[in-house]
Amino acid sequence: ADAVTTGRAVWLAEDGRKDAPAGAFTQDFLFDLGVPQFPTDSFAPVNDVRFEAGSEAVAVTIERPLGIVFEEKVDGIYTKIVVDEIVPGSNAEKNGDVRVGDVLRITTAVFNVPGVVDVTAWLNPPKSTNCKAFFNCEQKSFDKVMSAIQSHVVPVDTPDGPMTIGEVGLVLERPAKK
């Protein structure tokens, strides 16, 4: 089956920026976690993502394959996932919104959610479902973050059957220029 693209997996919420102490700020985002059959009721807000002073919040939707090389970098006691390279001719380069040095904060992902089993369903438990969701990359291992990005190859379950999502939503922090 062909992969479906919705055009926008994540975006900055209107009026979602709030000042924080020491020049930092928080930003709200909206993630489209649905599929084309449910375009109006499938937006999930992610509120108050904190960004450093002077940095920029970037929300980008890129078709797969991305064409981004990520690298794990140590920052004090924490690690962060940073854009190390943008592959020439790739979807990321064509998109134009990703830059070397951007820090990956959140990505969309596909998760397998087990069906809820209660007393009345123990003989015939519901099957698990693949759902599109967002994955917070903060303080996560490089392997877990890369697995979240790679999970987009797994079809999402819909009422019309499995559907492969053809794009990835990324929230990036563009550090202040030093």
Keywords:
2 helices, six-stranded antiparallel beta sheet, mainly beta, Pdz3 Domain, globular, 11 strands, 178 residues, three-stranded antiparallel beta sheet
- Please indicate the count of domains: 1
What's the count of strands?
Answer: 11
CATH superfamily: PDZ domain
Enumerate the spans where pLDDT stays under 50 for 5 or more consecutive residues: 36-40
Mass-distribution shape: globular
What is the tally of helical segments?
2
Question: What proportion of the residues form beta strands (DSSP E)?
Answer: over 45%
Please give the CATH architecture: Roll
CATH class: Mainly Beta
Helix-strand sequence: EEEEEEHEEHEEE
Q: Mind describing the biggest β-sheet?
A: 6 strands, antiparallel
Compute the average pLDDT.
87
Radius of gyration: 18 Å
Summing up helix and strand content along with how strands pair, one would put the structural category as mainly beta
Distance between the termini: 46 Å
| Helical content (DSSP H or I, runs of 4+) | under 10%
The CATH topology is given as: Pdz3 Domain
Can you describe what's shown?
Residues 48-104 form the PDZ domain. InterPro entries: PDZ, PDZ_sf. This protein is mainly β. It has one domain (7-174): Pdz3 Domain (Roll). It has two helices and eleven strands. The termini are far apart. The model is unreliable at 36-40 (pLDDT under 50).
